[in-house]
Design a protein that fits this description.
The chain is of the alpha+beta class. The chain contains 4 helices and 8 strands. The strands form 2 sheets. The chain has a 6-stranded mixed sheet. Strands 5-6 form a two-stranded antiparallel ribbon. β1 (49-57) and β2 form a beta hairpin. The relative contact order is 0.14.
């Protein structure tokens, strides 16, 4: 009986297939995570995190652990985000290294309702764009988010919006045309 070592090309191809499958699974996890956010399904949102996860989203502070992260979503967003906005993830860059991975995504929010001094108005077309920077870990053969950082950066960044709020300024107010 002959014992031959595996063909190096086959070994390399199997390794590549495993990485591609892992990247696809991570994309599916992150897409479902954003759908769960849009649906306000906080249990499903939390289920995408590892037990010891780290989460830093916009001006909500840093939260550690799945339970604390779920509580932050329910407490901070349940009564605030009530619009029928649409969300799109694009431009994923996913790097897999065994049972860990990193990912960066562009997030687009297509807004439909705006709160004004006179009430909420429905408009079509406004948008905002943000960036996710994440780390993932395979837990019992399922990919989960172990670290998540998210900020809005366009058309007005979270930092610009926070500064305007502190200064009682209106962001995006009419400006004179350039002469």
């Amino acid at each position: 009986m002959s014992t031959s070592s595996p063909d190096p090309l086959v070994t390399e191809l199997l390794f590549r297939v495993e990485r591609l499958e892992a990247a696809q699974q991570i994309a599916e996890v992150h897409n479902d995570y954003v759908r769960a956010l849009a649906d306000r399904d906080w249990d499903r949102v939390a289920d995408h995190y590892t037990e010891d996860a780290y989460c830093d989203i916009r001006n909500h502070g840093v939260h550690r652990g799945r339970t604390e992260i779920r509580k932050m979503f329910a407490d901070d967003l349940e009564h605030v985000v009530r619009t029928r906005d649409g969300y799109i993830l694009s431009s994923p860059v996913i790097t897999v290294d065994g049972d860990t991975a990193t990912g960066e995504w562009i997030w687009h929010r297509l807004q439909s309702d705006f709160h004004t001094a006179l009430g909420t108005i429905r408009v079509w077309g406004p948008w905002s764009e943000g960036k996710y920077r994440c780390e993932y870990r395979r837990v019992e053969s399922r990919w989960k988010i172990s670290k998540l950082w998210f900020r809005v950066h366009a058309p007005d960044s979270d930092d610009e919006l926070l500064a305007a709020k502190q200064d009682s300024r209106v962001v995006g107010a009419l400006r004179p045309l350039a002469s």
